[in-house]
Design a protein that fits this description.
It is built from 16 helices and twelve strands. By secondary structure, the chain is α/β, with parallel strands linked by helices. It has two domains: 3-182 and 368-383, Glycogen Phosphorylase B (Rossmann fold); 200-366, Rossmann fold. A six-stranded parallel β-sheet has the order 2-1-3-4-5-6, sandwiched between helices. The longest helix has 19 residues, at 211-229. The model has no long low-confidence stretch (mean pLDDT 95).
Length: 385
């Protein structure tokens, strides 16, 4: 059978509005079509439960989760000779794993977050079932590490979104390829000018879904407050939503510099490119140094860099593999270095231009969708016969 005759079915939990599904399902599927593959995307949110709010997909009852899995399984079985691309190892993955078991279809595991154990605040990272008995019966184990070992070991190959995740997956299988989340460089294009009148705009965007993200944004508010108190004309634009955003807003109000913080609740993903391009500096602070932080593929960082923004990132996680200090961005170790790095960029439009243009070049060469799509296409040809 010709390898291109198979349909590659992407199975994701979230919808188009969440970057892991948008890039790693919808965009990867589009890139594969450029290489002659037939593809389909089955997002649990978009196709199976469109009336369920996006964030609630991770908190459904076990009974509801099983209902969605069975409905998805029926749809997957309509294409019995396809290749199943499982994006994230959550409860939704069972639909593809069962389809593979019933039909003998090969599957690929796309692992883009470290989802074992809990985050630094004790929040469980694996979204399987609330009842461990369901977990044990349906996944074959109640322990996320054993589930990952089994699923990764039986996959045709695994796709790791970061170097940290690649090393972790290699303990279970040697069939691992590194493909970061990347960015659409046709949509996210360079700034027209770096000559910005005051104030200088610093941008952070994302979903503040938990304390681990909340603390990153609170760190930024402290940094900007320090800069403003020192006389720097700067504002922080925060674009996002999430259950912990109210705490972020309250913290900003208590800073004494509330007028220096601009909040935008939500921007449609396809409109984010305009917001990014209008900013002057992109930031990626990471307060915690833990497995989840080290494993995260920094989507917003790729978007900033593709847009020609100079970036300041914390000295940890996958960002350190992307940013070369003083060449295509600035790496800051702690609060004081973060402040000093931002001072440099606020003062000098020339520094913003030089680092921003180099950032765009880096992304075009290593993290654009065509580059990542080519890697995925070649890997499929190698492992799927």
């Amino acid at each position: 059978m010709n390898r291109f005759d198979r349909v590659v079915q992407f199975v994701g939990l979230s919808g188009y509005s969440y970057p892991h599904t948008r890039v790693r399902c919808y965009n990867f599927a589009s890139e594969l079509r450029r290489h002659g593959f037939k593809t389909r995307v089955m997002s649990f949110h978009d196709r199976i439960a469109p009336n369920t709010p996006e964030a609630e997909m991770y908190g459904l009852s076990d009974r509801k989760r099983i209902s969605l899995i069975l409905r998805a399984l029926i749809r997957l079985l309509r294409y019995p000779r396809s290749v199943l691309y499982i994006q994230k190892l959550h409860y939704h993955s069972l639909s593809a794993l069962w389809a593979a078991r019933l039909t003998g279809q090969p599957y690929i595991l796309d692992y883009d977050d470290f989802e074992i154990g809990a985050d630094p605040y004790g929040v469980p990272l694996f979204c399987g079932f609330k009842n461990n008995r369901f977990q044990d019966v349906l996944f074959g184990s109640a322990e996320p590490e054993k589930i990952l070992a089994s699923v990764a070991g039986k996959a045709a190959f695994c796709v790791a979104a970061s170097g940290f995740l690649r090393e972790h997956l290699l303990t279970y299988t040697q069939r691992v390829v590194y493909i970061p989340t990347g960015v659409d460089t046709d949509r996210f294009v360079s700034k027209k000018t770096y000559e910005s009148g005051p104030p200088v705009t610093v941008l952070w965007n994302g979903v503040v879904w938990g304390e681990i993200i909340r603390d990153n944004v609170l760190f930024l508010i402290d940094v900007i407050s320090s800069l403003v108190s020192s006389g720097f004309d700067v504002v922080l634009k925060i674009v996002g939503r999430g259950p912990f955003m109210s705490e972020v807003r309250s913290y900003a109000r208590r800073s004494g510099f509330n007028d220096r913080f601009q909040f935008i609740d939500w921007i449609e993903p396809d409109e984010m490119c305009t917001v990014v391009r209008e900013a002057d500096i992109g930031v990626l602070p990471l307060v915690n140094d833990d497995p989840w932080t080290r494993g995260k593929s920094p989507t917003k960082l790729f978007e900033y860099m593709a847009s020609g923004l100079p970036v300041v990132v914390s000295n940890r996680g996958e960002a350190v593999s992307v940013v070369r200090n003083e060449q295509n961005g600035l790496i800051a170790d702690g609060r004081d270095q973060f402040i000093e790095s931002l001072k440099r960029l606020i003062i000098s439009a020339q520094s913003r231009r030089e680092l921003g243009e180099s950032a765009r070049k880096t992304v075009m060469e290593r993290y654009s969708l065509p580059v990542l799509g080519s890697t995925l296409a070649e890997t499929l040809k190698t492992y799927i016969k």
